[in-house]
Amino acid sequence: MPDEPKPGKAASATATTTAAQRSLLHRAEQELLRACMAAAGFRFRPVPENPLPEARDFPYVVDDVRWAQRYGYGSGLRHRAERLRDEDPNRVYLRGLPAERRRAAVAALNGTPGGPGLRAELPGGAVIGHSGDGCQVAAWRDLYGEVERWYAASTLVDGLGAIRQRRVLTDPRFRAAVPGWADCMRSHGTPYEKPGDARAAFLGPGNGTDPAREIRTAVQEARCADSSGLAALARRLDRRHDEELRREHRAAVEQVERLRAAALPRARAVLAR
């Protein structure tokens, strides 16, 4: 069956949900939020999982020549994303409410501050929390049942991506490969010492005013990433650090996958109403 979870990697004995299954869970959560907010007397428009599908993140180096030929470093996509946020129906709706009514709507969605709530400990020991009531928590509870465990485990797992990227960028092997990429860039008239410098030149404040130059530079970055071996190395290191982090936080990873798998029948039922 297409909705059966896939076997996971050795880092986890629990099957891994697919992207399609996670999308189903997202849609069900959004529908639960809509229904809960309507019951509280407010409007809520379900939020698409990926409102700008063509947008991509290149945390280490741009490595897709075709994408760079079309979007450069993505300055145009960034402007489109900002417009989408400004025009988001839920934001527009909240802005149009009187102040007291707006506060009530936010509390209905996110819960009231103070009192017992949800708690998550992040890698490194920092602790964050979330109100224990409101439509968001109600949606989690309806889908995952064990809302305290879901919040604690999913919050930790959601934070692993940023840690993985930091580990790759500070990995001695990655750092040792960057000068070769920089030599390639310099030889083609685009003298940047590291990929982040090139990106900042076009995505920083006040930049992004020369689309043709942005595209030329991004395309050269991708070509140099390939020819210097930096792109292939970054992909290998990304996989390796991902596996290491999943092993380090195996209990949380497996908890998230178990709760997701158990939530799939409930999600289908929500969307079939």
Topology at a glance:
Elements: H1 19-39, H2 65-71, H3 75-86, H4 89-95, H5 99-110, E1 117-121, E2 127-131, H6 135-144, H7 147-158, H8 160-170, H9 172-187, H10 195-203, H11 211-227, H12 230-248, H13 250-271
Helix pairs in contact: 1-6, 1-13, 2-11, 7-13, 8-12, 9-11, 9-12, 10-11
Give a quick summary of the entry.
The protein has 13 helices and two strands; from the N terminus they run H-H-H-H-H-E-E-H-H-H-H-H-H-H-H.
Question: Could you walk me through the main structural features you see in this protein, from its secondary elements to its overall organization?
Answer:
By secondary structure, this protein is mainly alpha-helical. The chain has one domain. The protein is 64% helix and 4% strand. Strands 1-2 form a two-stranded antiparallel ribbon. The longest helix has 22 residues, at 250-271. The two termini are 22 Å apart.
- Unreliable spans: 1-12
- Global outline: globular
Give the terminus-to-terminus CA distance. 22 Å
Radius of gyration: 22 Å
Sheet-strand content, in percent, reads under 5%
How many DSSP H or I helices?
13
Q: Largest beta sheet, briefly? A: 2 strands, antiparallel
Number of beta-strand segments: 2
The helix content, as a percent range, equals 55-70%
Mean pLDDT: 93
Number of domains: 1
- Kindly name the structural category: mainly alpha
Order of helices and strands: HHHHHEEHHHHHHHH
Strand order of the largest sheet: 1-2
